[in-house]
Amino acid sequence: MRKIQKVLVHEQVSQEIQNYIQEKELSEGDKLPSVEEMTHMFGVGRSSLREALRYLEAMDIIQVENGRGIFVRDVNTYRFTGKVKIEQERVFLLHTLEVRRALEGQAVFLASKRITDNQVAEIEACLYEYRKLKEAGQDTSQIDLAFHRHIIKAAGNPVLETVLDSFSGLYEKFFNDPLGDKQLFDETYPFHITMFDAIKVHDTEQAMEEFYKMMDCIEAKIKGVQ
């Protein structure tokens, strides 16, 4: 539940920054207040603010320049019609997916070599819960996220786990109403099973093949949303 709250804070802060840009009628190249000033303006911690800034930068709404400050990008990119918002989120998700292919792909590779019996049992229990929720037509977004976190943990590399956790707010956008559709990636469910089956028996080649099928499916679904 704490993770859900974190995502909500990050999204709320990013929306407040966008509201500020519009209310102040800022233009491309205009400078936003400093991180310190915005933490006081919005009443949030530095970590929540920085997560919101990373999100907005990934969406091409702002640009953070080290040593200079935070600047507005082309204001025409966020006049908030529904169509523009969808396109912004689509670009953001595709950019994040590129990072997932690299980092999570490495986690799958390592997990296929290092997964323990206890971790196998944990993931089997996770998939059992996933199946029950799916069959009942209930929201599977959080159990899906839990599955991927289990795989990352099974990689047995605390540095990789820390790196993935450092952009968790961006990563979790895949599991929190992506493009306004909680069921957008339901078609990836079979790949969770086939990928895990390969990881469980330490078949690295098959695990990677199933992982890339999953990523390709996600990419196709993102590009297919109108």
What can you see in these coordinates?
InterPro entries: GntR_C (IPR011711), TF_FadR/GntR_C (IPR008920), Tscrpt_reg_HTH_GntR (IPR000524), WH-like_DNA-bd_sf (IPR036388), WH_DNA-bd_sf (IPR036390). By secondary structure, this protein is mainly α. It has 2 domains: 2-78, Arc Repressor Mutant, subunit A (Orthogonal Bundle), CATH 1.10.10; 82-224, Four Helix Bundle (Hemerythrin (Met), subunit A). It is 69% helix and 4% strand. It contains 10 helices and 2 strands, in the order H-H-H-E-E-H-H-H-H-H-H-H. It has helices spanning 2-23, 35-42, 46-58, 82-114, 117-135, 141-154, 158-166, 168-171, 189-200, 204-224, and strands at 62-65, 69-72. Strands 1-2 form a two-stranded antiparallel ribbon. Helix 9 runs antiparallel to helix 10. The model is unreliable at 1-7 (pLDDT under 50).
Could you list some keywords that capture this structure?
TF_FadR/GntR_C, two-stranded antiparallel sheet, 2 domains, 226 residues, DNA binding, Arc Repressor Mutant, subunit A, 69% helix, FadR family transcriptional regulator, elongated, transcription regulation, Four Helix Bundle (Hemerythrin (Met), subunit A), mainly alpha, 2 strands, DNA-binding transcription factor activity
